[in-house]
């Protein structure tokens, strides 16, 4: 078996991270691909979580309780979970260009159509269809990035991609608040209808653009020189050779690997934190005594800013030290602490924002780190299917968390019990990764 703990110093000279040619090549790739994928992910999150702002008015118009709203939020994850693996495997077969185009056109169309809901069952149906449409986007992009970037670059490049979620929160909060504040009754439509329509339409346009813009692999990139293509392919081949001979390459083998389920438990902490951050932040801020929609939107952006900055620093530290487990554990511990303190500080705006910022730190940093682990030892079909399986299993918590939080809020008038449960689960996920991922499997392999 090959040594699985190679460091940067072990890389061949032509793949050195100090090489000017190497850095220039990856800057070009990042500028070309990540700029567009970043925009796509911003639009994805806007369309997924803008319901947290729409619900401030939508619940009254559709006659939804907090429990019914929580159910609608959770229904998103049914199709999302069921179709994650098929969609990711399909991307490996037909390429990212076709897959991203299909996903964006479908989710953008459904998002804009949600503006015309007038009954609870339509809300439930739309959320279910939206989840099915978006299935495979996140794990598909993670797989797609592994076609371009070797392991030692992935925490940083994943963190840059995840900045899109922060950008969606930073942009989406004030934008949604502005629309809700100023579009009530325009042309006879409610403000939440304008919100869903105006924030859903750009995804349709981006889906059309993806068809003409994306390329599936480095060999097809006409914007790379022949030398740059050889450099990228050589780095990926070098990484592949450094994987242990026993690394799973078939899906069924990966499904029997306990590490897949440990990583899934770790990944589950991210959408669970996201349940608080993405779907209930406006409500939590409103409960502190703030009622102006625009002010709520502006304040809701602050945790995303904190989480984004923390993620960049933590991801850089993780890559520089070639260490994943402790970085992940400490990030999730911060999130669990923030959630716990939130239950005691719900009536203080500044304290609530600080607690939400700790949850945001966990949300972003844990996501950036956890996805560096599967590609480091899964190969071929196992990488595509394993990433899809991990993503799907991790979203099970995201399905139940909104239901539980909504039900607790309806029954008790408070989020406290549900948020404490979130804190326990997030901490447990961090412990699972710390103890369950072998040290030699969490270090990146060599490569430029």
From TrEMBL:
Membrane topology summary: Multi-pass membrane protein
Subcellular location, record wording: Membrane
Transmembrane segments annotated in the record for this chain: 29-47, 67-91, 103-123, 129-149, 161-180, 192-214, 260-281, 293-314, 326-345, 351-371, 383-408, 414-437
Cross-referenced Gene3D superfamilies: MFS general substrate transporter like domains (1.20.1250.20)
Chief location bin: membrane
Classification via CDD domains: MFS_ExuT_GudP_like
InterPro entries the UniProt entry points to: MFS (IPR011701), MFS_dom (IPR020846), MFS_trans_sf (IPR036259)
Keywords of the record: Membrane, Transmembrane, Transmembrane helix, Transport
Domain Major facilitator superfamily (MFS) profile, chain residue ranges per copy: 33-441
GO molecular function terms attached to this record: transmembrane transporter activity
CC per GO annotation: membrane
Pfam families from the UniProt entry: MFS_1 (PF07690)
Statement: the UniProt record of this protein carries the keyword Ligase: no
Keyword Zinc: no
PANTHER family, per the entry: PERMEASE-RELATED (PTHR43791), TRANSPORTER, PUTATIVE (AFU_ORTHOLOGUE AFUA_6G08340)-RELATED (PTHR43791:SF36)
Protein name, UniProt field: Tartrate transporter
Lineage: Bacteria, Pseudomonadati, Pseudomonadota, Betaproteobacteria, Burkholderiales
Gene behind the chain: ttuB_5
